[in-house]
Specification:
It is built from 25 helices and 33 strands. With 794 residues, it is α+β, with helices and mostly antiparallel strands. Helix 13 packs antiparallel against helix 22.
Length: 794
Amino acid sequence: MEAGAEVQRRRSPRLLRRALLLLAVAVGAAVFLLDRQVVRGFGEARWRHPVRIYAAPRAVAVGMDVDAAGIADELQELGYRAVTERPTEPGTFRRTGQRLDIYLNPSPNPDGYGERPAQRVTLELDGGKRVRSIETDDGAQVQTISLEPRRLEGLFTSHWTGRRPLRLEDVPPVVVDAVLAAEDYRFLSHRGIDLGALLRALRVNWLAGEVKQGGSTITQQIVKNHFLTQERTISRKLREIPMALLLEARFDKREILECYLATVYLGHDRLVGIYGFAEGAAVYFGKSVSELTLAEGALLAGMIRAPNVYSPLRHPEHAIRRRNEVLDRMLELGWIEPEQAQKAREEKLEPPKGRGAPSEVWFMQQVRRELREEALDPTRLAFGSEVYTTLDYRLQRIASEEVEAAGRRFDREQPGKETVQIAVVALDPRDGSLRALVGGRNFLASQLDRAIRTRRQVGSLFKPFVYLAAIGDRRSGITPATILHDEPITLRYDRTTWSPKNVDDRYRGPVTVRNALENSLNVPVVQLAESYGVERIAQFGDRLGLVSAGLPRVPALALGAFESSLLRVTAAYTLFPRGGDRVVPRSIATVKAPSGVVLLRGGERSEDVARADATYVVHSMLEGVVDHGTASQVRRAGLRGAIAGKTGTSDDSRDAWFVGYTPTLVVGVWVGFDDDRPLRGGAAQLAVPVWTAIMKRALAGLPGEQFEVPRGVELVSVEASSGKLAAEGCGPAITEVFLAGTAPRESCAREVTRQVARTDPASAVKQVREAVEEWFAALPGKIGALFGGGARRR
């Protein structure tokens, strides 16, 4: 028994040493893992960008006017630096009289294949502006180059939240002092934790039996916000402390403080989160962070404790009281003089200027929807993943600014409790890329996406497809020169009668198809639909993707008596520049995992709808809509080049639409009230001006384009009014587009002769005498032919 006790005594120290060794290994492993987490995550955590998101790269092409297109501004926004000598390092450029030298940064390829290396390119300029040629460093001549894709400063939470970069040197020292006074006045001296504050917090929590006080330093707050959950538990605090110590050991105070100021939560402006002092300065004071005063910095610093309680947007009196507490603390610490504190206390809190949501917020909501459709929740993508979108950042900004400007104008012109809403969609018809999206005037006031999530009556936007269905069917005999009758009619349908009318309540008698479409006449298109067949038109329209179910089989279908979204309608119009097939919109180019593996590649998806030749015939009439029809304001505003489109106004002017396009861009605009009230004016007065303002800026400096003419069409000169072949003495002629073999064969000259006979008696007598003399002169030959022919028949 004594021997057993002796063995036990000898074994105990060994077991203790083993236990201590295992404990040391476990602690070491835990510290190692925590250290890896801190080091690996802090760089990205500075901006809380678990997923990097990019806009589409900007292209620079031969023929572009670099000044009008704003290429120098684009380079500077991407961080390029202007130099006086030929660029020798990536990210620099030089502009001389006739040249623009750019040393392009290395750039990821949005298609997911590798990376484009840094390269130097030389743009030769005509007149110092327009690109004559583009040459790469190896001497190759190219037609276009792409700048690197712009990284979008924001992140996905419940919504897309914009972010602004911040550098510590841009923050006024008094603002930094206000933050330290409010949150961690010993920040510069402690090593990550403040033992005094921590012991006080432990005492309070022990007496309360729960976590009531944190005692967290700025370093601990970064750990909590970026690496841990927000729950107030002892176990979380036990992880938070060693991670704070590791963070201080790995990074210097400036880096930690800059991260904190750039990412600290400062409340919500309705549904959009505000993170960082740069964003807070813009939202609450309408200025950059470098312009903040002591009073403003103290107010923002005071908000950190309870951002929504002390928000000047919600509780200005609470915000002022808390601001003054921070000023008192700074005075107590001796960091400001009494005169400074008094002046800051007397500074009035101006009504918050606020700001709209980031211009890309509507677009990013669509990105989120598409990702989720592909089972790729953006909030759950792995840290370091990349999403390349199809967003044209410049066009998005232009569309947002013009919507804002038009909205202010409409508020003056259309007063009422409800504000006029505006939505915009821009698509690249070549591959379906969604280039810009505006779902309303102010995302913060209303998150309803009127471009995608609402359905409104499309009105006359459907008319081109009615004509396309008939013209594409050769058996119908319909051409742009076909005469339709603009006169009162009454139709019976489902035990009711309907009498369609034109918008101006006028009737014009016989009109050509072209005239009817260019001037958006209602009665002629209804008559055409009745004669061709409403069912045929509906079957054709079902392939356009305008509605989820089938289109209504009613006579009013010809006038667009059904509801669709702006995105669907704009996508349907892509078939005109594409030559007959409709492209499916997409907002995502590529999604890549942190390893570089492509998780999703957005590709072109299209559907054949009509023949290219018939589509071009209708397209030529849509060019006429812009040249001298209901959208002629586009030309009067000075827009030139290849443009076509169609206006649309629904019943009682409740909706105003315009979808216009070039060979490479289709833009749709909708204007209306959310409560469906009538507008004062139609598409020509409301939607067309918004579209024109956007396109004047979007097309500025771009090289000219032309629509491609397909095979199977012919151009023939016809009289504009009658649609018959033009001849001497007829009315004004136009060059009309026909499917090959469908042009009219009858000349307008016969009609002219009959008209003259009816209106000029003397001329009529002369023509009758000449006709009689001609008949008698030819009589012997006719008699001979008659008998000879009779003998042969026998």
